[in-house]
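User: Quick one: structure for sequence A, then sequence B.

Assistant: Sequence A:
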Amino acid sequence: MSVLGYVRRAATVLTTWHAAGIDDLRAITQDHITRAVAELTGSPATARAVALRSLFRALKREGLIFRDPARNAPVSAARALPKPLDEDQLRGALQRIPAPRTQVTFVLAAVHALSAHDQRGLLIDDLDRSRGTLKIRRPGSLVHVIYLDELTDRHLAMWLAERDRRWPAGTNPHVLVTAHTAYDPNHPQVSSNALNKPLRRLGHQFGRLRRDRILDEARHNCDPLNLVRLFGIHPRTAMTYLNAAHPGRFRPDAVAP
């Protein structure tokens, strides 16, 4: 699509900025982009975010702006609080996990279907407990926003309190740290093994927890866009889970890519 095509899709936002006295797109910041996308929810928000991201990418490529404020444009989806897996699947699981960090990784996987890779990249600055949100940054994708249920918020608070107690002067910006990464001046992510090993000892795996969570949601809600919004997955992936949960009920092309 041409630059003009992106402008047409973003016309409402550009008109609003013009009415506010912003006539130079070089003055647009990431905050402007975030507020513009947050005005909508679901697929309209995604369409607006994609249009703005594509527009500013084209402008930067042409040398008309120096920085791209829409590079990490977040999608503001309808607030749909996820539910954990069935009680019999989760009963006693957290009680068998002694460490707060492993408890929170288990909850993030079992409730929000976050992979180990997702969790390694979580940043403290992307956690807003007052609003109950956490941003998930995935390479090549729009920022995915999850809304924290009470269970997740409680275990995040417990882990952050434990982290502050053990490493009060730690400067690593990631949510999850170890004794090796908390004070490392290079601010590395925690290793995959540090997250996976404690769960494997208890018979859990990130991949299985993630798949079970999405499949459980697919059994209870047949809307593929609900899966896309809740878990930030591709529509084709959503249809794969719906077909697994309801064999023969959906056409393969029920949702366009």
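Sequence B:
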Amino acid sequence: MKRLVGPICAAAVMLTAFQARAGESPFGWIYTADVHPQGTFEYEHKSFMQAGQSQGQYFFMQNKEEIEYGLTNQLQISGYFNWSYANAFRNGFDGTTGGPGVTQFLDASFDPYSRYEKTRFDSVSFEAIYQVLNPVTDPIGLALYIEPEIGPKEKELEWRVILQKNFLDDRLIAAINIMGKHEREVYADGSIERASPIDVTFGMSYLVMPNWMIGFETRIHNEFTGYWFNNPEHSAFFAGPVIHYGQKEFWWTLAWRHQLPMVITYNEDQASVVKHGRIYGDEHARDEVMFRLGVPFAVK
């Protein structure tokens, strides 16, 4: 028994440190089935950056400012303020300027061979996550997620099925998200685009030492036209590492996903914006980076 005291205490310390910060995320894009305890608040900032296309210069950063609240021990709600920054210059296949977050906002007065740079307000959104099964006390964690979003140029409904499994006394976390969106975007010329992508994301993150986790994330993105997955357009694949640090006062996560050279296209329009096995156009960039910062706080 004396020989077991040391290892048991060390494991207990690591497990306790991890569980005390269950509200934080060890992944960049993937959600886990953990929710905030009832009556607790957290501020979270997210920056999702896309960079690099077939040529020229391209950078697009979507930002979310969020307040999360544990309404019950199983239900977490959040409110978002969404804004973005775009900077692009002759990044299209034909040498014109465009790309995700850019083309939608170009009207007839814009010189297609000039630089586009702008910071703008995008939308507001509401999020609710309901924990069906607890990943710590149940064999597997399960949560359901829904997020309506509305802005001047876009309306969107996002949903997720979140699965989580913990291993090695909760030091290793595996998570899968099945995410769908129903999107309506208004372009500067008045045209409307309706889309319904489905993503399947998978990741694992390991507690390498107190406060630090390292892992990876993968993404399979499937794009469809129409609100209800009417016609397939393409499938793109991403993978990359993630690092996470957390303590009582704050936490942060940094993740990177690289588009793998294995895209599948289902029509000529989509095939026309593929180079070296990667798809660009108005859909994707070569690299994706996510930074998240969380600060829990109490309201008296």
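Residues 1-20 have pLDDT under 50 and may be disordered. The first helix runs from residue 2 to 19.

User: Thanks, that's what I needed.
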